[in-house]
């Protein structure tokens, strides 16, 4: 026969119920904390990865400019039929076109021992850029690359080695310049100095 339920039994059941609810609330809070920790970890990882991309070598300033110049050089330098879109005879048309697209007057400097053969507009992640090509009597081609700079609006000349290409890049008054070639730094550096003086 069942014994009657006393006040003590009711009080004990109520205490167990409260303890059980407290434990459930504790678990729910732990799950919420764990969920928040996982979310923050994922958010931090995504932010860290985006900063990694933004600060990786060759992704900002003149380092990026030099890389863009080398990539354009690699595409157009070996082309025997159409390395440039507008040839040297259309120099004024080319300069007008590139200056208008870059919203900045550009010039084609002279390079000792090299002749200007023409140029074109090329696309970059920062908008259009001008590519001006030179060659010498041995068929060696050099490219001068120019585009507006959003970072490093003024920076000294620096050397960049990009695979088999050597480049010198700098920024002056918001415009970035790079001279790229398949040659040695001691040949290219004086030519880059010539360009910088004329610009």
Automatic annotation (TrEMBL):
The keyword Membrane applies. The chain crosses the membrane at residues 33-51. Keywords: Membrane, Transmembrane, Transmembrane helix. This is Anti-sigma factor.
């Amino acid at each position: 026969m069942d014994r009657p339920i006393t006040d003590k039994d009711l009080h004990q059941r109520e205490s167990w119920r409260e303890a059980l609810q407290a434990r459930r609330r504790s678990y729910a809070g732990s799950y919420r904390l764990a969920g928040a920790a996982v979310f923050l970890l994922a958010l931090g990882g995504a932010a860290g990865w985006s900063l990694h991309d933004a600060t990786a070598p060759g992704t900002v300033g003149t380092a990026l400019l030099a890389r863009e110049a080398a990539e354009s050089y690699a595409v157009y330098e070996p082309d025997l039929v159409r390395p440039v879109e507008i040839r040297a005879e259309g120099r004024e048309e080319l300069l007008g076109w590139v200056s208008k697209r870059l919203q900045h007057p550009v010039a084609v400097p002279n390079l000792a021992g090299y002749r200007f053969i023409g140029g074109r507009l090329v696309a970059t992640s920062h908008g259009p850029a001008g590519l001006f090509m030179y060659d010498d009597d041995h068929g060696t081609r050099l490219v001068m690359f120019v585009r507006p700079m959003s970072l490093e609006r003024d920076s000294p000349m620096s050397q960049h080695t990009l695979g088999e290409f050597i480049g010198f890049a700098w920024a002056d008054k918001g415009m970035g310049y790079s001279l790229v070639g398949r040659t040695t730094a001691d040949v290219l550096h004086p030519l880059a100095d010539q360009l910088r003086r004329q610009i």
